[in-house]
């Protein structure tokens, strides 16, 4: 993993630890105590804010977009930790899809659903 992605690894490790220890006074603990519904609400809220920021012009708009992307990624990682899924599992899934057209991958996924 490149050095620029090390903060993600450290954050995931911290979130995994907080999911297990649930320290008082932690925002992550508060989210996890509220469960998937609250975490999901935050993800949807942050996704909406990210989309809005994407249309903001100039350097300030770009900085706001980066900020909102960070919020969305953080809340997504909280949900992964809540569910007990490591970032490496997501990376492996993306690696599995590498080199496959998104349209083909989606068609294969839909076919698998109808076969079940």
Automatic annotation (TrEMBL):
<keyword id="KW-0368">Histidine biosynthesis</keyword>
<dbReference type="GO" id="GO:0005737">
    <property type="term" value="C:cytoplasm"/>
</dbReference>
<dbReference type="GO" id="GO:0005524">
    <property type="term" value="F:ATP binding"/>
</dbReference>
<dbReference type="GO" id="GO:0004636">
    <property type="term" value="F:phosphoribosyl-ATP diphosphatase activity"/>
</dbReference>
<feature type="region of interest" description="Disordered">
    <location>
        <begin position="97"/>
        <end position="116"/>
    </location>
</feature>
<dbReference type="GO" id="GO:0000105">
    <property type="term" value="P:L-histidine biosynthetic process"/>
</dbReference>
<comment type="similarity">
    <text>Belongs to the PRA-PH family.</text>
</comment>
<protein>
    <recommendedName>
        <fullName>Phosphoribosyl-ATP pyrophosphatase</fullName>
        <ecNumber>3.6.1.31</ecNumber>
    </recommendedName>
</protein>
<keyword id="KW-0378">Hydrolase</keyword>
<keyword id="KW-0963">Cytoplasm</keyword>
<feature type="compositionally biased region" description="Basic and acidic residues">
    <location>
        <begin position="106"/>
        <end position="116"/>
    </location>
</feature>
<keyword id="KW-0028">Amino-acid biosynthesis</keyword>
<dbReference type="InterPro" id="IPR008179">
    <property type="entry name" value="HisE"/>
</dbReference>
<dbReference type="Pfam" id="PF01503">
    <property type="entry name" value="PRA-PH"/>
</dbReference>
<dbReference type="InterPro" id="IPR021130">
    <property type="entry name" value="PRib-ATP_PPHydrolase-like"/>
</dbReference>
<comment type="pathway">
    <text>Amino-acid biosynthesis; L-histidine biosynthesis; L-histidine from 5-phospho-alpha-D-ribose 1-diphosphate: step 2/9.</text>
</comment>
<keyword id="KW-0547">Nucleotide-binding</keyword>
<keyword id="KW-0067">ATP-binding</keyword>
């Amino acid at each position: 993993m490149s050095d620029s992605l090390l903060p993600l690894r450290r954050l995931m490790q911290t979130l995994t630890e907080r999911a297990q220890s649930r320290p008082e006074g932690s925002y992550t603990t508060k989210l996890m105590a509220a469960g998937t519904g609250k975490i999901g609400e935050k993800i949807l809220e942050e996704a909406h804010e990210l989309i809005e920021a994407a249309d903001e012009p100039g350097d300030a708009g770009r900085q706001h977009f980066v900020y909102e992307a960070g919020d969305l990624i953080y809340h997504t990682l909280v949900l992964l930790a809540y569910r007990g899924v490591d970032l490496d599992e997501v990376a492996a899934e993306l690696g599995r899809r590498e080199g496959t057209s998104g349209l083909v991958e989606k068609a294969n996924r839909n076919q698998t659903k109808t076969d079940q």
